[in-house]
## 1
Amino acid sequence: MLRVVAASCARHCRVFLAYIQAVTLKTQMNTFRLISHVPGRCLQRTQIKYGYCTVSPPVRLCWSCNRPVYNREYFCECNKIQPIDKNMSYFDAFGYFKPVVQIDTVDLARRMRDIQKQLHPDKFSRASPYEQKLAADAATFINQAYATLHKHVDRFSYILSLHGFKEEDLSSGSVNGDCDVS
C-alpha cells in the first residue's frame, strides 16, 4: 500500500491521511480504491503518484449523527449501526474488493466470525428497536452472504448473476460460451 496525504475542500473538510490500494493494473493504476480512516465530506483532489483523483469515495450519511459513513462500513464514528448498503455485494461484505472464484474457506470463516462479533443481534438487545432491526437485517445479510460464498457452486452462480446472467439462463443452457467473467 502507498501512503499519501489527501487534501480536501478547505471550507468543509480537513487534511487527512489515506491509503491507496490498487484494485487493478489493467489500466495502469487508473482504477484504484481510496480507503480513508478520517472521513471528509467533499474530497476534491487526492494526489497520487500518476495523477489526481476527482471522485470521492462512496459515502452516505449516518442516520443518527449525519456524519459521512463509507458504504462498506457497518458503523459510524458515533458507534451506531448503519443500514446495509443495497448495492453491497456479498464479496464487499467480507472485504473482498472484487468477485473471487477461489476463496480460502478458513479465511472466509474467520472473516465471518469477526463480522458476527460486531453485528450479532444479541449485542443490540438494549438498543433502540430501530437499531435492533438494523442488526437483524445485517446478520441476515451476512449469513446469506456466507452461505453463498462458502459453497463454490453457489459462489460461481452468484458471480455470474453479478454479471447479468440469470439462474434460468444457466439451467437452460442459453449462455454464450464467449463471455469474459473476469
## 2
Amino acid sequence: MTTRQQSRVISAAAVVLLTLLPTLMATAATTTDRRWWPLDSYVKVWIKNEIGGGRPLKIHCRSRDDDDDLNVHVVKPHETYRFRILPNIFGTTMFYCSMDWGTGLHWFDIYDQGRDMHRCRHTYYCTWIVKETGPCLTNGEFTACYQWKN
C-alpha cells in the first residue's frame, strides 16, 4: 500500500469517527439508564438515625473542599436525611458529616468516591445506618460498619 493509499484510509476512518461521535454523544445524553455513563450520574446519600433512646440526630455535611455546605439538619429517630452528590471525573469527591445526639460531636467521611464508588454504583444509593458505635453502609448486598473518626 502506498503512502497516498494509507492517507486515504486514515482520512476515511476519521470521517466515519467524526460522523459517529455526535450520534453516540446524543444517545448518551438522552438515554434513561445512566449506569454506564458515570459523568452524569448522581449518587444519593441516605443517612438513617438508628442511635436509639428516642434521640434526634443533628447532622451537618460538607464537601471536603467546603464548596458545598449542606447546612444542619435534625433527623428524628428512625427517619432519614437525604442528599445527592455528582461525583467528579477525577475520583476525588468527598463529603464528611459531623453528627451529634447529645453525647458530643462525632464525624465521618460519609461519601469518599475512592471508597464508595463501586459499593454504591449498582443502585447509585449509599445508605448509611447511624448507630452510637459508628455508621454502617448498606446497599442490599452487604453491610460495612465503621468507627467514628474522632
## 3
Amino acid sequence: MIRINLLPWREYRRKEQQRQFISITAGAAILMAMIVLYIHLHIGGKIFTQEERNTYLQQQIVEVDKSITEIDALETKKKQLLARMDIIQQLQTRRPGIVHLFADIAQQVPSGIYLTEITQKEDTLLVKGVAQSNARVSALMRSIEASQWLTDPKLEIIQSEGAKNNVRQNQFILHVRLKAPVKEEEKQPS
C-alpha cells in the first residue's frame, strides 16, 4: 500500500533550516566572542607584561642614575684629592729650595750690607736693606747675577739716610727673580 504523507513537510523543512541557521549563527557568534576574548586577553597580557618591563626598566634607570651621581661625586672628590696631592707634592719639592735660597742669599751678601726684609711673591723676591756704600749694592747685584738660585736683579731705589755712628748708610730696594738651578747632568751636552 502506498503511504501518503500529508504533513506539511515544507514547513517542517523550513523550521529545520531555521534551527540549523540559528545554531550555526549562535556557534559562529560564540566562536567570534571566544576569539575576541582570546585576543583581548592576549593583548591585555602583553600590555601587562610590557608595563611590568617598563616599571622594571624605570627602577633600573633610577638605580643607574643614583650610581652615576655617586660616580660623579667620587670623580669630583678624586679630582679634589689629586689637586691636593699636586699642591702637597709641589710644596715638598719646593721645601729644599727655600733652604738653598737662604743659604745662597747668605753667600751672596757682601760685607757692609745688612738685609732688613725679604718678601717673596710668586717667583720674585723683594729685598730691602741697608748698605754702607753704593759700590756694595753693585757688588751684591753682580753676585746675585752669578748665583745659582737668583737672577735678574733690578734696583728700584737707593737713598742715603745719612751717617749713623760715623758710618754712612744707604737704604735700597732690590727686585730679584728666582730660578731653578741647572743640574750638572743638564749642563753637559750628550
